[in-house]
Specification:
By secondary structure, this protein is α+β, with helices and mostly antiparallel strands. Helices cover 30% and strands 12% of the residues. β1 and β2 form a beta hairpin. The longest helix is centred in the C-terminal third of the chain and has 17 residues. It is globular and about 55 Å long.
Length: 233
């Protein structure tokens, strides 16, 4: 599926019709997918667009490589978002054939697949292959716990992709991760208590409201890529 922006500027999200028109959209000359209403928007968005600035290939899908603890530590940064790296996946990649659908994001309208060499292939090399964000993404809607293999084995660096083959961005997967962490905190189970009826939170409306607020919080902090939230993830 193309990452073309449905007649909206990739930076400010203003469209080409009605009161939101800012000017004719111009396509990125390199990838021919991202569209911008002005040179200023294109320049501001370049740090975000650059990792995905490749011509559209219907045989490939933009996914995310989620680094394990060991690989993340080698980056020498405390920025947790650095764990998420863009990756251009062939549609024959194991994430689409062997990956597991993350049930909590799926119930919220976000069809996320996850592939772990540690869980699905049993590859357990030496090192810190712990991957807490991956375990959070894989929690079950019944009890907010991940399946036992995800708890007992070290998942390692995982591959993430949308089942519908829409492009997966660092900003969107970070938001889904933060959502699952919020869900775990809210879960009303005997061991940890909780503050909300867990299953009642698992719906697209609640997820999109959280997403809108999270994007706004990050935008206020000045983080690039978290622009005004217009379209559902």
């Amino acid at each position: 599926m193309s990452s073309k922006s449905k007649d909206r500027c990739a930076k400010c999200h203003f469209g080409v019709d009605g009161v939101y028109r800012k000017g004719p959209l111009k396509v990125c000359s390199k990838c021919k997918t991202a569209e911008y209403c002005s040179k200023e928007c294109q320049t501001e968005h370049w740090p975000i667009h650059r990792p995905m600035c490749k011509p559209h290939d219907p045989q490939k899908t933009w996914g995310i490589q989620l680094l394990c603890k060991d690989e993340f530590q080698h980056l020498n940064t405390k920025d947790e978002s650095a764990r998420f790296k863009h990756i251009h996946l062939p549609n024959s990649h194991p994430v689409f054939t062997m990956g597991e659908l993350c049930p909590v994001p799926a119930l919220c309208g976000f069809p996320l697949l996850i592939f772990s060499p540690g869980v699905q292939l049993g590859q357990q090399p030496t090192g810190e292959w712990e991957n807490q964000p991956a375990v959070y993404l894989r929690i079950e809607p019944e009890d907010a716990f991940a399946p036992m293999p995800w708890q007992m084995l070290e998942p390692g660096t995982c591959i993430l992709a949308r089942k519908d083959h829409k492009p997966l961005t660092r900003e969107s997967i970070e938001t889904v991760w933060k959502w699952t962490a919020k869900i775990i905190d809210a879960a009303d189970h005997p061991t940890y208590g909780g503050w909300a009826p867990f299953r009642g939170l698992l719906n697209p409306a609640t997820f999109q409201m959280f997403t809108r607020d999270y994007y706004e919080e990050q935008r206020v902090k000045g983080r690039k890529g978290f622009d005004a939230f217009w379209n559902p993830l």
